């Protein structure tokens, strides 16, 4: 391969000139996270209606209650009708809540009665089991005594065993 010296010189010159141009580019600053404490603007006073309205408008809220003298009779009637409808729905919701509470209280009372009855049955079963175990232990001890007497030579103890538990 034949390389012309002029072509090599042009290439070297291009590379040499490109280096300083890249070095002159603006240096990039390291990434700095936003400081949450930097915004020190005062928050609006919630008691001041003007600042509260300004905050709501800044958030995109468009509602603004007009005073009664700025509304027409039709708007006032519509507002009263809507308010009455909402009040009626609230009354129905309160009644439904009260009925649900009464149902819950009744179900809870039934459950507590059932729990008490089950606990009483469990106590009675445990008492009966203890009494049966005690009777068994007494009968077993009597039988062991009879076997001991029979083995020791008492002929009357070797007869038919007495009925258990009587």
Provide a descriptive summary of the structure in words.
- With 166 residues, this protein is mainly alpha-helical.
- 65% of the residues lie in helices and 0% in strands.
- It is built from 3 helices and no strands.
- The longest helix is centred in the C-terminal third of the chain and has 79 residues.
- The mean pLDDT is 83.
Q: Compute the separation of the termini in Å.
A: 126 Å
CA radius of gyration: 49 Å
Strand content: under 5%
Q: What does the oligomeric state look like here?
A: single chain
Number of strands: 0
Mean of the pLDDT scores? 83
Order of helices and strands: HHH
**Share of residues in helices:** 55-70%
Task: Give the class from helix and strand content and strand pairing.
Answer: mainly alpha
Query: Which consecutive residue ranges, at least 5 long each, have pLDDT under 50?
Result: none
Q: Please give the count of helices.
A: 3
Biggest sheet statistics: none
Shape: elongated
List the helices and strands and how they pair.
Layout: H1 5-23, H2 49-58, H3 73-151
Task: Compose a concise summary of this entry.
The protein is mostly helical and 166 residues long. 65% of the residues lie in helices and 0% in strands. The relative contact order is 0.03.
What would the keywords be for this entry?
3 helices
């Amino acid at each position: 391969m034949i390389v012309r010296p002029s072509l090599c010189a042009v290439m070297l010159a291009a590379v040499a000139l490109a280096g300083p141009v890249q070095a002159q580019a603006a240096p990039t600053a390291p990434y700095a996270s936003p400081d949450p404490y930097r915004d020190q603007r005062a928050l609006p006073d919630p008691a001041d209606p003007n600042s509260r309205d300004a905050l709501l408008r800044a958030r995109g809220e468009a509602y603004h209650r007009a005073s009664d003298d700025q509304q027409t009779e039709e708007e006032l009637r519509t507002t009263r009708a809507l308010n009455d409808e909402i009040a009626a729905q609230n009354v129905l919701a309160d009644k439904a809540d009260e009925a649900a509470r009464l149902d819950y209280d009744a179900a809870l009372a039934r459950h507590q009665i059932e729990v008490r009855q089950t606990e009483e049955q469990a106590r009675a079963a445990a008492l009966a089991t203890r009494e049966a175990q005690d009777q068994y232990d007494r009968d077993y001890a009597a039988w062991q005594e009879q076997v001991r007497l029979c083995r020791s030579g008492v002929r009357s103890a070797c007869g038919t065993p007495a009925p258990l538990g009587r």
